């Protein structure tokens, strides 16, 4: 299966080592870290995490998505629920040369994930990325339900 590894930075080794030291039952003990050496498997309804350190094209959002290692450590120490859903972490998006380049690759990655029956969870980036995520669903002519959490109303 072809994937967009050229556009992704794998999860920091420090985070992976942190997860190895977590107690059994935590999300960090159950997540699968994806890179070219450890490719993603197509498993129906699996969750895929992606962080995006994009803060261009916005006001007062400098640093959004810049602290993905801290976010991951906090998230991965939570305990896994009573479910069989797999969680993959595909790392961090390399932002494009321009903001529009980033929008295009976000749209393509999300479209790929949706076509392969994954549930994408995007962390970080600006609110402007929501439109690229929406367009990925729109191109597949699927019903769209998006939850967007922001620090403030704009």
Describe the fold and architecture.
It is a single chain. Helices cover 32% and strands 16% of the residues. The protein has five helices and five strands. Strands 1, 2, 3, 4 and 5 form a five-stranded mixed beta sheet that branches. Helix 1 packs parallel to helix 3 and helix 4 runs parallel beside helix 5. The mean pLDDT is 83.
Brief summary:
With 154 residues, the protein is of the alpha/beta class. Helices cover 32% and strands 16% of the residues. The termini are far apart.
Q: What is the share of helical residues?
A: 25-40%
Average residue-wise pLDDT: 83
Question: Could you list the spans in which at least 5 consecutive residues all have pLDDT below 50?
Answer: none
Counting H and I runs of at least 4 residues, what is the number of helices?
5
Compute the number of strand runs: 5
Roughly how many Å apart are the termini? 40 Å
Strand content: 15-25%
Give the helix/strand class: alpha/beta
* Outline type: globular
Strand/helix succession: EHHEEHEHEH
> Could you describe the largest sheet, including whether it forms a barrel?
5 strands, mixed
- Rg over CA atoms, rounded to whole Å, is 15 Å
């Amino acid at each position: 299966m072809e994937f967009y590894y050229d556009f992704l930075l794998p999860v920091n080794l420090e985070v992976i080592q942190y997860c190895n030291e977590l107690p059994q039952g935590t999300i960090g003990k159950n997540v699968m870290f994806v890179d070219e050496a450890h490719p993603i498997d197509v498993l129906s309804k699996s969750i895929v995490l992606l962080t995006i350190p994009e803060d261009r094209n916005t006001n007062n959002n400098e640093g959004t998505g810049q602290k993905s290692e801290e976010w991951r450590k906090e998230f991965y120490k939570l305990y896994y629920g009573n479910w069989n859903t797999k969680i993959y972490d595909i790392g961090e998006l390399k932002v494009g040369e321009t903001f529009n380049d980033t929008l295009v690759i976000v749209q393509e990655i999300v479209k790929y994930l949706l076509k392969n029956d994954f549930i994408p969870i995007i962390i970080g980036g600006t609110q402007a990325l929501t439109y690229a995520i929406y367009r990925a669903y729109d191109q597949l002519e699927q019903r769209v339900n998006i939850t967007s959490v922001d620090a403030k109303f704009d």
